Amino acid sequence: MRTSTDSALSPPRAARRRWWAWARTLGGVAVLAVVLWRLGTGPVLDGLRAIDGWTVTAALAIGFVTTVCCAWRWRLVAGGLGVRLPLGSAVAHCYRAVFLNATLPGGIVGDVERAVRHGRDAGDLGRGVRAVVWERAAGQVVQIAIALVVLSVLPSPARPYLPVIAAVAAAGGIVVALLAWAVPRSPATRWARAARTVAADIRCGVLARGTWLGVLLASAVAVAGHVATFVIAARTAGAAAPLSQLVPLTVLALLAMAVPMNFAGFGPREGMAAWAFAAAGLSAAQGVATAMVYGALVIVSSLPGAAVLVVRRIRVPVAAGASGGV
Predict the structure, then answer these.
(1) Which among 258, 286, 288, 283 has a CA at the least distance from the CA of 270?
(2) 155 with 245: CB under 8 angstroms?
(3) Core-most of 85, 114, 121, 182, by most CB within 10 Å?
């Protein structure tokens, strides 16, 4: 039986979506392949072999903190939109999402899955999906803001480009404001309804009095956790540079992960790390090794999500069998 969503997607549109999904995955694979071809796999393998018990324990501990922070942020945003989400359920959903993101092509499969699943469980698919979209967007905005502060305070290869980046960001904000102002005010227009929905979501789900501070705090702690994991990966890969040099390079590599062209997070991150480490006077191969070790640590820290998946697969058949026996 076809759902309304399936019927709304015309064959050409569905084909474009499949093409874009494959293009994003293959693009990430291509970037990673070129980087490894140019720099070799020796440093990468050495870095992966250097992962020990302490590194794994640290990754699991930091991963727990960042996952709880993301779950708390999601719960705050969902509550602002009027969708109930217990913290324990949010943590389980986030762990599963991180595991799927870290192991499946595209890097966003887990977030899509948790958005749809929570929306259906809550009985409001639209608000459930929008809660995840705004939660992720809020995290990205905070990460970019922290990155701009770090890159402007600490020396980095990106410092000469900061004025251009700031100008582009300001221009983008002006364009968005102009587009919002130009949207027709008639309630009958689709764009007007969409604009009102977006404004209401941001006002109630992100910027509400009891929400914005928690969203900011959770996002900042999550970013700090990602940076700490990347620094541990750098040390594991043999980077001996001081933190004042490693942190800006880490921020650049993490920003590259937002590029929607990767294979389970791999691709642009390694390319950016190679450029940043080389531009900072370090080895490009060491940058790639650091990024690869970071990816491995992310997979390790997401392993509780695999346990969540297994538990759910066990519970669902049991519940189905129990309901069938009534």
Answers:
(1) 288
(2) yes
(3) 114
Write out the two tokens for 76.
């705050």
Identify the helix (H) or strand (E) that includes residue 211.
Answer: none
Q: What angle do CA 313, 84, 214 make, to 5 degrees?
A: 110
Rounded distance between C-alpha atoms, residue 130 and residue 118, angstroms: 11
Q: What is the Cβ-side half-sphere exposure of residue 262, based on CA atoms within 13 angstroms?
A: 24
Angle at alpha carbon of residue 47, lines to 44 and 48, rounded to 5°: 85
The one-letter amino acid code at 192 reads A
Which pTM value belongs to this model? 0.84
Helix (H, G, I), strand (E, B) or coil at 266: strand
Side-chain half-sphere exposure of 13, counting CA atoms within 13 A: 6
Q: What's the alpha-carbon Rg for the chain, to the nearest Å?
A: 21
